[in-house]
Every structure is written in C-alpha cells, then in structure tokens.
Amino acid sequence: MNNHALCWINQTIKPAAEASISVFDHGLLYGDGVFEGLRYYFGKTFMLEAHLERLWSSAQAIGLELPYSRQEITAAIEQLIEQYHSDSGYLRLVVTRGQGSLGIDPGKCANPSLFIIADELSVMNVTDLSQGVSLHVSRTRRSPAECLDPKIKSMNYLNNILARIEANQAGMDEALMLNLDGYVCEGSVDNLFIVSDGVLKTPSLDCGLLEGITRAVVIDIAIGLGIPCEETRLVVADLERAEECFLSGTGAELIPVRQIGAHVFDRPRTSLVPLIMHTFKEKIAEHCTKR
Ligand SMILES: Cc1ncc(COP(=O)(O)O)c(C=O)c1O
Q1: Which DSSP symbol is given to 121?
Q2: Of the CATH numbers 3.20.10.10, 3.40.50.1000, 3.40.630.30, 3.20.20.150, which one belongs to the domain with range 129-289?
Q3: N or C: at which end does the chain have fewer Cβ atoms within 10 angstroms?
C-alpha cells in the first residue's frame, strides 16, 4: 500500500489505511467473495464494461448479489479516480459475502460488502520489465474447473499463491502453471502468449485458465494486425521452441518473457511482440482519451 491509496467503502472515500472490514466478514474468514482489478489511464478506465461484466458473472456463479448497481459502482470509480493523486492507477473492486457468525454457510451473511481500492500495482518485483521476466514451471498445478471454475475471479487465490511461492523460492519472477493434464495453463496472475513460426498462440480456455480481458484485447489486436492467432493446447516444449513469449494481464499489462526454467530465449527477437506491445499502448491511449 502506498500513502496515497484510497478506498471507497460504505459510500465514502477515505485513505485506504483507515478503511476496515469486520473480522467476521466471510471474505476474510473463508475467501468467500469475488473481485476485479482494472486499470485507468489519463483519468479514464480501460475496459470497464468487460470488468463489470466479469464481476457480475463471478458473483452470480457463487450466488452473491451485488449490493450496488453498475451505475453506482461506475460513479464510485469515477469519484475515486477524481480524488486519487495520479491520473493513472489500479482499482481493486472486492465483493465479499459480508459479515456473519463463524461457520462456512453463506446463509449466515445477510449483506454482502463491497469496497474499491485505488492504488498502484506492480505484479512482479522487477525494476525493468522491458528486459523480460523469468518463469518457473511450478509443481503446483492449476486447480481444475471441476473444483473451482477458473472463470470465477474469486478471493481464493491460494492455488496461484502456492505456485508463486515456488517461483520465489527458485529465484524466478513469476510462476507458470500447468493444468492436471500437463498442458500450459497460465501464470499466477496473467495469461501467456508465444509467437511460434510467425503464429501467435495462447492456451485455449479448455485448458482451465482465467478468461483474461487483456488476453482478449491481445487477440483482437493480432486479428487487426493480420497476425495469425491460435487458441490451442501447448506444452512446455512448445514454449521452449517458440521465438518469443509474453504475459498479459490487467496488472501485468504486457510483459516479455526472457526465460522459462533453464531455457533462455535467443535474441534477436521477432518484431511481432514489439508491434503488439506498441499497438496495445496505442489502444489504451485511444480508448482512454477519446471519451
Ligand atoms: C490467474 C489469472 N490469470 C489471468 C489474469 C489476467 O486477466 P485480466 O487480463 O483480465 O486481468 C489474471 C489477472 O487478473 C489472473 O489473476
């Protein structure tokens, strides 16, 4: 948390350090809740509709009714952006089951709670992301859809956190998670792309990953640029054979990967990833300034 962080809670905005929720909130006790992270640039949100849509569908999937309308949440976000010290930042929308007596039953919680944090976010402890990050292929596999549908952006991130702990212990920047069948799934907080023989490839949704909003933006960009794009099943050897690799996510934005396990990508790289990254920045500027 930085000193500037703000929080919208109970319809008021306060310094995030002064915002609090009950120790009986089932979000805290059981991870019973859903969230979204979105960025804003030049004072305007990026892909807000898609994030609200996913928040609503995550909430619906766990039988949680949001305590505010989309208009009210949009207004709260606008107020936060206006009061935050910078014209770009990261917003975390969290909806918890709310306060209830001990015991897992969601029926104990009458009123869901919602709060929104405005802060900065760096998803990896790396000073110069443009040099690329290293991925550790974690032993912890992504939990399958049969156990927890990855479409639900829930407050249960322990699966991903365990993978990230492994990456930290291996001295690597981010974890690469495989699914139970050994196919590449995603990073702990991001989706993954490779460029292989001039084709942009990313794990297909049936591999059990979060349907990333940035992933969809990248696919759109590739289509717009006429770059062939495939959603497919990949194994680690496919990544090692690729010309390039990068991660996508709201927090991550687009980050090149320079190393996966012991494999270091050769230089020079193709020109496709710089082109996609440049177009991504253009898209943000266009989306956030022309409103
Ligand atoms: C597990 C996981 N995969 C992928 C992503 C990227 O999704 P998005 O681009 O919607 O932020 C995230 C980030 O929220 C994530 O936590």
Answers
A1: -
A2: 3.20.10.10
A3: C
